[in-house]
Specification:
The complex is a heterodimer of chains A (186) and B (311). With 186 residues, chain A is an all-alpha fold. Chain A folds into 2 domains: 70 residues, Helix Hairpins (Orthogonal Bundle); 100 residues, lambda repressor-like DNA-binding domains (434 Repressor (Amino-terminal Domain), Orthogonal Bundle), CATH 1.10.260.40. Chain A has 9 helices and no strands. In chain A, helix 1 packs across helix 3 and helix 8 runs antiparallel to helix 9. About 10% of the residues of chain A have low confidence. Helices cover 50% and strands 15% of the residues of chain B. An 8-stranded mixed β-sheet of chain B has the order 3-4-2-5-1-6-7-8, sandwiched between helices. Chain B contains 15 helices and 8 strands. The model of chain B has no long low-confidence stretch (mean pLDDT 87). Chain B is α/β, with parallel strands linked by helices and 311 residues long. Classes of the chains: A mainly alpha (186), B alpha/beta (311).
Amino acid sequence: MPKKELKKYFEILEISPDSTILEIRNAYNRLKKLYSTDSVVISPIADEFSKKDRKEILQQVEEAFMKLMESLKGQPGSFQSYRRDLASEDDPSAEKTEEEPYSGSVLKQIREKRGIQLFEVSLDTKIRMELLESIEDEKFDSLPQEVYLKGHLTNYAIYLLLQPDKVTEDYIARYRAWKEEKKEES
Amino acid sequence: MDKLKEVKEGSIWAIGGGKGGTGKTFLTSSIGIFLAKAGKRVVLIDVDIGGANLHSFLGIDRPKKSLTNFFEMGIPLSRLAVKTGVDNMSLIMGDVHSLASDSIKFTQKLKLFRHITKLNKQYVIVDLGGGSHNNTIDTFLMADKRIAVLEPEIIAIENMYHFVKNALFRKIRMSLRAYGFKEIVEHMWEQREKYKIKSLKELIDSLKESFSYLGDILDKEIYDFKVYLVLNKIRSSQDILIGASMKSIFMKYLGINAQFAGYVEYDDAVWRSIRERRPLMLNYSLSRVAKEIGVFTENLLYEREMKISRS
């Protein structure tokens, strides 16, 4: 992608061109939230700053984010190469060995290395704080049914820029193992 | 204080924002003290129409001399400045009556601005008070640094939009007057229903559409119109986001370059220090509020922006 175009996308997201992936994502989340909700900063000018105007801005923000993300990938459309790129930069998940499954503590480690607070995950993904805590601490008995848990894990994985399939597969396996163990005990 | 190089030594800072009670006078006095303590020469000017009381925030008596003496008798500004009890910092009182009226002619205003500009190598901090009166807006526009103070609540935010839009509209009108377009702008705005113009942005857009060669002029006017936002009395870290959000809206909606200079948290020590007539910057200089004031003042000085690490 031409430099000039990239610069434009960074401008739309209101960040400098040397921003990290995390900063890009945060800017995207912040702007998406700002222009899609009727907040205290929007409502005083809502009558002249129409829904249509805001929709246009949201589209631009969306486009800028997608294009920037795409430009970070090795080959467009390939998630694997994107992950490789991430790893070559500062991808905390790169420090996880291939064999090690995505357990609660691994997820927590990755999140902390990305410098993300749990409440931010909760605000952005709408997953309750206690539930996130239970996921990370593997308090399996306070987790919801598998089908719901899968949904939450998928959202959390996407939020952390991880492969959702791999995360849910690993985590659910641990969850099932715990369930089996409990059954045997009783 | 940072060792960074300043853009230039001495400048005029105007502190407004539209709504009364957001802490403009408190912040004016605090910015002044911070700069003076850092060795800068500072003159505070109080032109708050609603109630000039900057002296109270400094714990001194109301000065007898005021800008009336300048307007009516031509006494130079330097002789109107009184001591404030803070080294390097003096105060010039505005006058409630002479400034509130429209009796000040444009030429008189220009004369005042010219004389303010002549206070060179000094930091002139002007407390505009609340409201969007023409005199207030004009003073805001003439400053080197335009600082708009707000608190994180809807009325202050609404007034701030109103204030900034008014200022921009006035700036555009003034500059288009030079190109002989003043009447057209005013006509379009007065007949805005007929032209289906709902907002300043739509006015600007339709001006650009009708007179394509105005595009560059308007873009430059808007681009040069820089405003610094200071968020006062915040009560949570979520409140800080309002500064970043308003910056974004100003840019995306009006194309205005607003910089979020910083924030000051709510603290009872502020009103306590005002009641005791002992400036917080001197008496509670180690408080968080004092530190936050220092941070945003340095940001203003070096034209930097508040770092927002994350949403």
